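Morning run. Coffee first, then this:
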Amino acid sequence: MSDVSVLMTVYNGMPYLPLAVESVLVQTLQDFQFVIVNDGSTDGTADYLASLADPRITVLHQANQGTAAAANHGLAHIDTPFVARMDADDVTLPTRLERQRDFLAAHPQVGLVGTQVVPLGSSRAGSSLQLPLTHAEIYPAMLAGRHGLAHSSIMLRTDLLRKIGGYWSLNLVDDWDMMLRMGEVAKLANLPDVLHHYRVHEGSLNGSGMRWMRFSIDFACELARRRHTGRPPIAPEDFAANRNARPWWERANEVLDLHARTQYRLAVAELHGRRRMIGAARLAWAALCSPQLTCERVLRVFRKWNQLRKEARA
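And here it is:
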């Protein structure tokens, strides 16, 4: 009996969906359940899913309700000890499921394990994000709103995901909250090797999208801090009102930070797509707008490089 399921949610996944599905089907670990939830797609997604004949695949359909509702719908149809998440436009590398399953089996204290990831543009893949490896590094970074895990690369224990209530039902970006809550009941980890490519699209993320994503992350972090200190949860409307009541210079600094983050994400897509010169110029502008954010990313890469150098000398 399989001990691994892959859970994918998709909304209008064409034209990248077939490559994403195929990258799962050719894994070195071949015994798994593959649950795909079509979240009310209006393009050719439903037709493509109907053409899949692999017996490992279960396709579920629902009206468009968002990724959290789709993930919880899929989770209800999973009965394996481990579940791996997969985005509908990413490409996962062949040994990922086997490596993560073996790691979780060997480390019972770990409830969730991710991998190193690289951005995948329309022309090429980039370099590793150099995510931290241990819970002691990952959880504080996540709690501070910094990337410590790539959600599309994770595998976690199904019983723990159900224990924490799955994904939240709020109309917000849902993965950060779930990963923080998992870190409160078990250890978090990342494998040291690149085993996943996450898709970056030129022009796919605008300022409002970045603003919504950062609000979701900040709200998830605030809820986690309240759990740690025994304070009651806060409603998203009240959290937003508190943010809007901050001094004007704090709000202005946040606007600049959001602009820098948006420009950085677009630059990554262009650098790995067909607009490398524009991407380089945009990256320089992002660094100018937010030197602190740029320094954090450079420092993360430097620390990882220094760690690898020390290990090579040992």
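The chain has a mean pLDDT of 87. Good start to the day.
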